[in-house]
Amino acid sequence: GGSNTMVSWARIAVMAAVGMQMLSCTEGFLLPPAFPQPYKKPTLVGARMSLFDSLFGKGRDQEEGGGGKMEVAVCKERKIGDLVVSEMGIGTWSWGNQLLWGYNEGMDDELQQVFNLCVSKGVRLFDTGDSYGTGRLNGQSEKLLGKFMEEYARDHGGVYPNIGTKFASYPWRLTVGSMEKACDESAARLRRPVDIGQIHWSTANYFPWQERVLWESLVSLYKSGRCRAVGVSNYGPQQLRKIHAFLQENGVPLASNQIQYSLLSRSVGEEVKEVCDELGIAMIAYSPLGLGLLSGRYQSKDDLPKGPRGFVFRERIDEVAPLLQCLQDVAEQKGRTIAQVAINWCMCKDTIPIPGAKSLKQAEENLGAVGWRLTTSEVEELDLAVKKVPRELVQNIFQTR
């Protein structure tokens, strides 16, 4: 009927958005600057959390998180390849995306404050992509990060986090040179070289002969010094083994694989994690809050986000109710929020979650997920609860086997 058709189109819209926008990038070429001073141990500068609360209030807010109030710890360090990052990063998909996340340029001042707060609390990894941003705002996420990093470094003694960006596997990127150009353009928008350069998605499912070019491009990006480390995104266990072997033969380490992973997206992730552990590859978990369904913000059909996500959530909200209740129970026991428990679960699985944050409230809540761990029994309790959910969230359309 009409309702099912609407939900189907909403699913397609979300899948297409998750699969990234196939939009061309027109930013001109600029020579990237030299790599900046290595990241320094963060000093706790800037406003205290109580000041943020007095200025911006408490409570839940927007799609990816709420705004629970609590003491915020400094992120612990961990590594991706030879790079020292943090146990949790921040994803910036929403910074420029109007279609799915409702971005507008009036948000930029608060996004700057989000960036400053996260870096001051030890976040040493920000994730972006050259396709992040819709229409005329294509590349906006990288541009904002470039501006924010430059201003923060100027005011805080040259402190820079690591930036992982992803190069879209557009069908016109058919040569190593085209991928090198994409990397140089990203570096120009970031106002510094790329730390972790990643293939955004594999073309093995629909254009397999382009895949070899993408792999050869990672070799060139690493050996030419354009990227300090290289990784992939949306690679399943079989394809991950293949690219790892290829890069190894060419003397290039594969540092990371970034996939959709959360309590509602586990099946592929658990297979991938086994291969990552075997091969020494860090696994980065994007959408750790299930596009916001695990944020605690949405618990009934009367309170859903606008746009395509709202249609999908309307179909799924009742199904995930047992899991949300379990998350709530654990959160109350820990003195945390549902979102913080969901993010912490990802860290307990030895992944690096990169939740989004487009407000100070969301950033503060995300930061409340670090500096502690769920107990083994609490993780098992959540693992058991998720078995009561009949379906996982829709996977990225570019996810390979």
Main attributes of the structure:
two-stranded antiparallel ribbon; single chain; 10 strands; 401 residues; eight-stranded parallel beta sheet; globular; alpha/beta
Question: What can be said about this structure in brief?
Answer:
This protein has 14 helices and 10 strands. It is α/β, with parallel strands linked by helices. Helix 7 (208-223) links the parallel strand 6 (194-199) and strand 7.
What average pLDDT do the residues reach? Answer: 83
Proportion in β-strands: 5-15%
Q: Give the SSE string.
A: HHEEEHHEHEHEHEHEHEHHHEHH
- Fraction of residues in helices? 40-55%
Q: Look at the helices and sheets and give the structural class.
A: alpha/beta
| Count of helical regions | 14
| Low-pLDDT ranges | 2-33, 36-69
Radius of gyration over C-alpha positions, nearest whole angstrom: 20 Å
So what's the overall shape?
globular
Biggest sheet layout: 8 strands, parallel
Cα distance spanning the termini: 33 Å
Strand order of the largest sheet: 3-4-5-6-7-8-9-10
Query: How many extended strands?
Result: 10
Q: Looking at the chains present, what oligomeric state does this protein adopt?
A: single chain
